[in-house]
Specification:
The protein has 179 residues and is α+β, with helices and mostly antiparallel strands. 55% of the residues lie in helices and 20% in strands. It has helices at residues 10-22, 58-67, 99-134, 140-178, and strands at residues 2-4, 25-31, 34-39, 45-51, 71-75, 79-85. The strands form 2 sheets. Strands 1-3-2 form a 3-stranded antiparallel sheet. The longest helix has 39 residues, at 140-178. The relative contact order is 0.11.
Amino acid sequence: MKKIRFFIDDQKEETWVNSMSQQGWDLVKFTPFVYTFTKGTNTNYMYRNEFVASHDDLADYFSFIEGTGVEVVHTNKVWAYYRKEQQPNAPLFSLFTDSPSMLTYLKKRLTLFSFLVFLYLFIFVGLAVNSLGSVADESVFMNGILFTILILNATIVVLFGVMSLRLKSRIDILKHMTH
């Protein structure tokens, strides 16, 4: 079964995948916005996702993860999904067992997302400034394409901005909890 969903919050995405698992559906593959599930075997899995683009050697990293008893469900160059059977009364499966490693992970993501906000903002401003003088000279078709590109670019800025703010909030909460 395929489900189409759009998330800008990885925690909400993870919660939704785990709710699907509790309903008896096992995640087998994901692509942006499309999640593929199969009817489960009534195994109580806990799923976790991770931003993996910052890892240097993914093959070694995934081998390490699997060595801890965690199954790598599906990966792409940016995200990975893992699962582990959740035993009754056992602590919940977590990829990060201490606050410093979680803080490091979140800070890497914040750095990347903040960079992307400024990159796309720079592109947006450049396109907007360059288009000011040429709007009267261009055809309606070209103005429509430029307008569409500007809107898409602005949307990307807002999405990465929201993700950055949420990450910053998570970092602040985690820092406050550890002090």
